[in-house]
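ESCALATION

Customer reports they have been waiting on this structure for their group meeting. Please prioritize. Original submission:
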Amino acid sequence: MIRFPLVLLALFAFTPCDGLAEDPVPSGHSTVHIVFIAPHSHQSMGGGMGGASRPMARIGDAIVPVDGVRSIRISIDGDFVGHAMVGMWDITPVFNLPEGKHKLTFEIDGFDPVAADIKVLGTNSKQYLIVKLPTEKPETAKPAGSADASTKQPFDN
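Update from on-call: job pushed to the front of the queue and completed.
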């Protein structure tokens, strides 16, 4: 007779309570997963293993060269929301965004910002945004008044 209440109590203890669980994606929102495509130059911007001591950083459970990690500053609709990382230890962000159009901006030090527009469906779905990072640093313009000695011909006066 005592076994029946114990079995019933155990059954209720291990039964998930759907009414008490929070909805991970609010109504009218979708999760946006950002995936970065980074050229090789971003993933290993350091020198070789040739004898010189390189500064190291701890990222999660890994110790990696500092110059092999690039932080990406993320803004949504003009507001800074956080960082992601690309390199030997990628950190790819996921955002719950409300339905509608949103502008995302990604900045890496020394590179031109990358912007992307996305229309969030708001159907509690999963959407992916693939961001291709720039391949090269932009060239700096030479000042107008500077003369380059290599452009002069040997017999110019």
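Sent to customer with the following note: Residues 24-46+54-135 form a domain with the Immunoglobulin-like fold (CATH 2.60.40.10).
Escalation resolved.
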